[in-house]
Design brief:
- With 327 residues, the chain is an alpha+beta fold.
- It has three domains: 47 residues; 98 residues; 153 residues, Glucose Permease (Domain IIA) (Distorted Sandwich), CATH 2.70.70.
- Helices cover 40% and strands 24% of the residues.
- The strands form three sheets. Strands 3, 6, 7, 8, 9, 10, 11, 12, 13 and 14 form a ten-stranded antiparallel sheet that branches. Strands 1-2 form a two-stranded antiparallel ribbon. Strands 4-5 form a two-stranded antiparallel sheet.
- The longest helix is centred in the N-terminal third of the chain and has 45 residues.
- The radius of gyration is 44 Å and the shape is rod-shaped.
- The protein starts with a strand and ends with a helix.
Length: 327
Amino acid sequence: MSRFSKYVYNPDTLMYERQEDSKFHIALKVLLFAGTVVLLVFFYFWFYTRVLGLDLPKTARLKKENAAWVAKFELLNHELDMSERLLDGIEKRDDDVYRSIFGLEDIPQEVKQAGFGGVNRYSYLDDFGASALLKSTVKRLDVLTKRSYIQSKALDEVALVSKQADQLSSCMPSVPPINPIPRSYRISSGFGYRMHPIKQRRIFHDGLDFATGKVGPGVYATGDGEVEKVRYNFFGYGNEVVINHGFGYKTRYAHLKDINVKKGQKVKRGEQIGTVGNTGQSTGPHLHYEVLYKTKPIDPAPFMDLTMKPDEYQAMVEKIANENERS
């Protein structure tokens, strides 16, 4: 029996006769059947998605997986928020407390954020069709990683300096730069604004002026350190010595007559570095003395006790002189 044939009753012959479909009819039936199936499938998907508002199984599965990844990234960003706040606190304590105590310079923000501006270093993620959430998370991880590395190095520096903290007491400029013998000197100019004796206008004065009335009294280092500068400036400080005490502190001694030290020399508190003079822009024999912290002048007065007994000061000077002779 042919697959595409059928039997039809013939009333004339009173018999069933086989009737075969033409190829055209067969093809037409196949096309109609296929078209009907396509229409039914289309109608099913249209009704399922448009009328019922449901997602196709594959779409629903992908959306579920995407929602799970978004939730993971949001949780990761929440943890990054907490880590950033923690790192912010560590950086602030480092700048305001640790580095301040030991006179270390703050780490500039441009150093902490270096390498994350300008060229798009995350363009490779575009090749993978990464979302904005993924790219922002990757960038935050990179920034946090580098900030953590820089901060760890900063704390290593603080730890190294803290091991030398016992030296801070000897390096701190904490005695007068001259022997405070009563009536042998006077403070002719204090720290702050004053009328300049030569320029005759109000100018900020960066230190204290010890007027002695004569040249020659000894000038002494007020703390242990290293001589950073020895120079002569005719229109300014005249003979000048700058000592770097470490921990952010420096002292300047100006208008000297004689200089007994040289650049790079190690000095101790109470060691004579020169004598009071009248060199440079000066109206009389005096010592101009400055204390600088992190390169900024600060008031020297709180760093010294001008009521210190002269014999105690002299004993300190002689002790250092004897130690230098023996060494």
